[in-house]
Write a structure and sequence with these properties.
Chains A, B, C: This is P-II family nitrogen regulator. Chains A, B, C: It holds the Pfam family P-II. Three copies of one chain form a homotrimer. Chain A is an alpha+beta fold and 112 residues long. The first copy, chain A, has a single domain, classed as Alpha-Beta Plaits. In chain A, 20% of the residues lie in helices and 42% in strands. Chain A has two helices and seven strands. A four-stranded antiparallel sheet of chain A has the order 2-5-1-6, covered by helices on one side. In chain A, a hairpin with a 2-residue loop joins strand 3 and strand 4. In chain A, helix 1 packs antiparallel against helix 2. The longest helix of chain A has 12 residues. Chains in contact: A-B, A-C, B-C. Chains A and B meet through strand 2 and strand 7 of A and strand 1, strand 2, helix 2 and strand 6 of B. Bound molecules: adenosine-5'-triphosphate (3 copies) and magnesium ion (3 copies). The site of one magnesium ion (MG) has 5 residues of chain C, from loops.
């Protein structure tokens, strides 16, 4: 079992959800986050004052899968999230050792 | 060391906290999230318009443990979160390689 | 690759970001969370009623690194977050199996 964790543009959430459903991984958890990647902080002006925008709003999507290869899930998210501009996001794959579905008490891959 | 990650109904947070304290794992981190499981999106009506509710409010609970079996923590959370209705939630167990307590500088299991 | 997950005081976020940038790990994701550590719940008074504060506002910082030792990242966060008072926070290190940069399609350590 794997947890795929993706930080993407908020306005790409709908496309990512659809891409996940199409690849057979519709279950997901969404969190509002902010973050930065590798580029330097962006400077802006507000009422004549210079300020630095260093954290951008993103959504974090977490999807645990058991029977679908993590790579297919990564590809689906990447396809849904892609614009080609800086700030499109990152996807990470983490190992998951066990799962439990609260309603049924099922554990392991069946519970995902 | 393990990180137990659970997505449960917001109104079950109190019961889950109590179950965790009783099993000897009172430390936790809580995040407001939204998500969906495996059932199809629910259709509703608002001012005559049909709409689709596809993300439900949940809370995410993260608990790292060292000396308590992850299974006991999972069972405690499941017990606190259970209603028997669809949407009760999921619990995942992830491996943790190291821990650090900021105030004391302790590392490893002692730091959890 | 490792994911370093830290829960710290919100007013230490700036110091932690700077410490991370100095150690060569500027990329990060920030989430508003609440939580509790090992100390018992704190009792307070509000309009004559006693109440229990059991969850404190924290920020969660997630940083995935490939070429920098996780220990250096942990030390940088700990240094930025330290006050010496209870509630300074915790840092956990989780294994990451793969990474993907959405804009470029790069995978593995190069994508972090
Ligand atoms: N190494 C990382 N660890 C944790 N979160 C990250 C990491 N890299 C990126 N993120 C998250 O992903 C979001 C988007 O990152 P972003 O796409 O800007 O990455 P990037 O490497 O700068 O790529 P690009 O050059 O295409 O902008 C960030 O705002 C942050 O939330
Ligand atoms: N595979 C998964 N990956 C990530 N998050 C998940 C996953 N499955 C469930 N979740 C999270 O758990 C929440 C509750 O899921 P839910 O209990 O509806 O699961 P389910 O499999 O549909 O079970 P049930 O049939 O009892 O409803 C979701 O809203 C989502 O936040
Ligand atoms: N074992 C844990 N699992 C998940 N989150 C934790 C854990 N321990 C601490 N946290 C998170 O870190 C935050 C800060 O914890 P805190 O610094 O109070 O830990 P502590 O062990 O009580 O140390 P101290 O004695 O210095 O207060 C908590 O509010 C919670 O969000
Ligand atoms: Mg960037
Ligand atoms: Mg469901
Ligand atoms: Mg404490």
């Amino acid at each position: 079992m794997k947890m795929i964790v993706a930080m993407v543009r908020p306005d790409k959430l709908g496309d990512v959800k659809q891409a996940l459903a199409e690849v057979g991984a519709p279950s997901l958890t969404v969190t509002n986050v902010s973050g930065r990647g590798s580029q330097p902080a962006k400077k802006g002006q507000w009422r004549g004052e210079e300020y630095v925008v260093d954290l951008h709003q993103k959504v974090k999507i977490e999807t645990v899968v058991a029977d679908i290869p993590a790579e297919d899930v990564v590809d689906a998210i990447a396809e849904g999230a892609h614009t080609g501009e800086k700030g499109d996001g990152k996807i990470f794959v983490l190992p998951v050792e066990d799962a439990h579905q609260v309603r049924t008490g099922k554990t392991g891959p069946e519970a995902v």
